[in-house]
Amino acid sequence: LKSKAKSLGLWNLFLSKDYPEGAGLTNLEYSLMAEIMGRSIRIAPEATNCSAPDTGNMEVFAKYGTPAQKSKWLVPLLKGEIRSAFAMTEKAVASSDATNIETSIQRMNDHYVINGCKWWISGSGNPRCAVYLVMGKTSTRGNKHKQQSLVIVPANTPGVKVVRPLTVLGYDDAPEGHCEIVFKDVRVPLENIVLGEGRGFEVIQGRLGPGRIHHCMRSIGMAELGLDLMLKRVTDPSRRTFGKLLAEHGTILSDIAHSRMIIDQARFLVLNAADMIDKVGAKGALKEIGMAKAIVPDMLLKVLDRSIQSHGAGGLCSDFPLAQMYSIG
């Protein structure tokens, strides 16, 4: 599938026209394609080299990387030869406020020494994961948004230990996985810093903005698939209750109608955010990105729950993709 996608030009579509390495699409144009890819859940993003967290990491290297960093990491990522992970969330603190992150990145002579524990690190379970982007503190003084930095850590660096894979409602999302990782006295050269000390927040805002929109549009694709499966189920002539098709019951019709409305509402919200990123950049579109990030997951879970209910017990088993999609949402 990857070879076919490359031959058709369906490769690295997520990198906007601002980057020569990409396919030349705007964020708005790619958002529409991300929705289509979301319907296949896992296959299409992987086949087109548009899987998270690689997409965001490649954007970091493309936007902020030095020529040496791009050569070593961006090029093989763009070719689909390796995978990567983004290590930010921590077990011991409330990581939704990233200023709480405690992982230490201390400068010692010609190296940085990293100590800390991360978890829910998506992609880190993949055997092809070759590099981590690790966020931590290079300083504990001054402006709290200038204390964090981002460093590049090759996955085979001594002191890096993948402790365990974590499951989401029982799903381990193999082969990528979401893992807990310990960094103990991990040493990387000074040139592995991204952009500079104290500029971690600047980098992650540039990374997470477009990435959130991409994920939101894939989620809308999943919601559309969930609605399609519900429609197929409730219009099945062999499934009748109390003398009626399932689709003839008022509660089912209400679920379908409300699902259609909230999917379309969410789509317009995300497309507006993508358009704003194209016009004013991710930093200027924080409000629109934030609204999309809040609305879309809520919408997806509502639609999937309705679809699961329409499938009865079957909705919770692997005969249908609904439970897996719910775990992703």
UniProtKB/TrEMBL annotation:
Residues 85-186 form the Acyl-CoA oxidase/dehydrogenase middle domain. GO terms for biological process: fatty acid beta-oxidation using acyl-CoA dehydrogenase. One of its GO terms (cellular component) is cytoplasm. Its cofactor is FAD. Keywords: FAD, Flavoprotein, Oxidoreductase. The keyword Transport does not apply. Residues 4-81 form the Acyl-CoA dehydrogenase/oxidase N-terminal domain. InterPro entries: Acyl-CoA_dehydrogenase, Acyl-CoA_Oxase/DH_mid-dom, Acyl-CoA_Oxase/DH_mid-dom_sf, AcylCo_DH-like_C, AcylCo_DH/oxidase_C, AcylCoA_DH/ox_N, AcylCoA_DH/ox_N_sf, AcylCoA_DH/oxidase_NM_dom_sf. GO terms for molecular function: acyl-CoA dehydrogenase activity; flavin adenine dinucleotide binding. Residues 198-326 form the Acyl-CoA dehydrogenase/oxidase C-terminal domain. Homodimer. Belongs to the acyl-CoA dehydrogenase family. This is 2186_t:CDS:1.
